[in-house]
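[step 3/7] inverse_fold.run input=structure_tokens len=182
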């Protein structure tokens, strides 16, 4: 098991450390990460969520966004980021995977990893980079976590030992909630 978790983690680390050299392996990596988010072990899913946001950011750094400039030639204060086609393609794979675990995953570790990765991704991509459909899904995930309605937070028949996942996400420095409000 440790090998799968380590290998999944390393995919994200490679993408983060040397994004240009990593680009030829992006398609296979995305396919692998899509498989790993459905894996039976919590730590493997958590590693996959963490790596997903790193491959999106690696693509974003290799294919920078179009910068909008004001008519006087200076960058606009209310600048909206327009992602490259390459980044948008990778983001369209990653966003549904990162924003849906609260609906089905019973692992607090995996859901916290997905929420943290999602928040970090939203913050790094910038204002307006993510379309309304993906933002709505991220918002639904945040609401589920805040209201204690995520599958991993629902108490079973054997009692309730829920650890506050939203507190973990907020205090863990993941910036999930501030990303949605800014």
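[step 3/7] decode complete -> sequence:
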């Amino acid at each position: 098991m440790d090998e799968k978790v380590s290998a999944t983690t390393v995919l994200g680390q490679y993408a983060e450390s040397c994004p240009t050299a990593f680009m030829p392996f992006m398609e296979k990596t995305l396919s692998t990460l899509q498989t790993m988010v459905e894996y039976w072990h919590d730590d493997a899913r958590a590693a996959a969520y963490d790596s997903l946001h790193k491959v999106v950011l690696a693509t974003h750094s290799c294919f920078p966004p179009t910068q909008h400039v004001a008519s006087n030639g200076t960058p606009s204060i209310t600048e909206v980021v327009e992602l490259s086609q390459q980044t948008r393609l990778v983001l369209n794979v990653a966003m549904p995977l990162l924003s849906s675990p609260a609906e089905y995953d019973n692992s607090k570790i995996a859901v916290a990893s997905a929420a943290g990765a999602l928040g970090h991704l939203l913050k790094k991509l910038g204002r307006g980079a993510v379309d309304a459909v993906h933002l709505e899904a991220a918002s639904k995930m945040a609401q589920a976590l805040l209201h204690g309605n995520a599958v991993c937070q629902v108490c079973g028949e054997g009692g309730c030992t829920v650890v506050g996942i939203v507190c973990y996400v907020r205090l863990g420095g993941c910036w999930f909630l501030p990303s949605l409000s800014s």
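[step 4/7] annotate
Confidence is low (pLDDT under 50) at residues 157-182.
DSSP finds ten helices and no strands in the chain.
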